[in-house]
């Protein structure tokens, strides 16, 4: 239990390198390697792995198009990357000696801040400055501060939800492993896989909702 949470492994000058940093780079390296291996020889008639890759891409695009019609290709790079990274990061805790980077609030907050920055980026890109800023004063200019506060609080909510659930899952597994080390690991590992995938899905869905609201033009519903 005392080992839960990030701790410093070594220093690079004044910068501490924590277990979270190491796990994050391992996840990124793993995803880059898998991406290269899966995409280097794409065939017109896909094999099993290419089929799996295409199913994932189509699934993400369909999910985006369902909530933000015709925005699938625009949001795919961001949404797909977030879904892959968070899903892989959540499952990292299952690897002996590693901790899920998303069980560190700094990682969860960084991911939420990416979404926070992406909302005005896509809003301005698709609607233009004038129309995007206009959404802050609708239905009345009095609402502008509330819109801004809402965007800030939902960013922290996004980070806390991901961090809390993944950290809580790791704590429960650690406690049960101490109480029943022989019988608990397999069912709890399955539970951890389920929780990790669900949390990645929730984060992805909420991101699409925030982005679709930002690019929705007046009169479009």
Automatic annotation (TrEMBL):
Q: What is this protein called?
A: ATP synthase subunit a
Q: Which Gene3D superfamilies match?
A: ATP synthase, F0 complex, subunit A
Q: Which GO terms describe its biological process?
A: proton motive force-driven plasma membrane ATP synthesis
Show the stretches that span the lipid bilayer. 20-39, 74-95, 107-124, 162-184, 190-211
Keywords associated with the record: ATP synthesis, Cell membrane, CF(0), Hydrogen ion transport, Ion transport, Membrane, Transmembrane, Transmembrane helix, Transport
Query: What NCBIfam families does this protein map onto?
Result: ATP_synt_6_or_A, PRK05815.2-3
Concerning SUPFAM superfamilies, the annotation shows: F1F0 ATP synthase subunit A
Name the job this protein performs: Key component of the proton channel; it plays a direct role in the translocation of protons across the membrane.
Q: What organism is the protein native to? A: Atribacter laminatus
Family note? Belongs to the ATPase A chain family.
Q: Which GO terms describe its cellular component?
A: plasma membrane; proton-transporting ATP synthase complex
> Source organism's superkingdom?
Bacteria
Taxonomy of origin reads:
Bacteria, Pseudomonadati, Atribacterota, Atribacteria, Atribacterales
Gene that this sequence comes from: atpB
Q: Give the bilayer topology.
A: Multi-pass membrane protein
Concerning Pfam families, the annotation shows:
ATP-synt_A
Report the principal subcellular site. membrane
Give the Gene Ontology MF terms in alphabetical order: proton-transporting ATP synthase activity, rotational mechanism
UniProt key word Membrane: yes
**Where, subcellularly, is it found?**
Cell membrane; Membrane
């Amino acid at each position: 239990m005392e080992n839960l949470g990030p701790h410093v492994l070594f220093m690079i000058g004044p910068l501490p390198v924590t277990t979270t940093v190491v796990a994050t780079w391992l996840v990124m390296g793993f995803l880059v390697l898998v991406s290269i291996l899966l995409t280097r020889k794409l065939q017109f008639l896909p094999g099993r792995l290419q089929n799996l890759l295409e199913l994932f891409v189509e699934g993400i695009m369909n999910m985006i198009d369902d909530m933000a019609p015709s925005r699938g290709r625009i949001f795919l790079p961001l949404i797909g990357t977030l879904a892959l990274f968070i899903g892989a990061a959540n499952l990292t805790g299952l690897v002996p000696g590693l901790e899920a980077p998303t069980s560190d609030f700094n990682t969860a907050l960084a991911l939420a801040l990416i979404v926070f920055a992406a909302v005005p980026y896509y809003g301005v890109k698709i609607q233009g400055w004038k129309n995007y800023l206009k959404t802050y004063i609708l239905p009345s200019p009095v609402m502008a501060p509330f819109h801004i506060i809402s965007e800030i609080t939902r960013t922290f909510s996004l980070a806390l939800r991901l961090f809390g659930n993944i950290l809580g899952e790791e704590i429960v597994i650690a406690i049960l492993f101490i109480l029943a080390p022989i019988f608990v690991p397999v069912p709890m590992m399955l539970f951890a896989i389920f929780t990790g995938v669900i949390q990645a899905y929730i984060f992805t869905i909420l991101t699409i909702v925030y982005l679709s609201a930002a690019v929705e033009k007046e009169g479009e519903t």
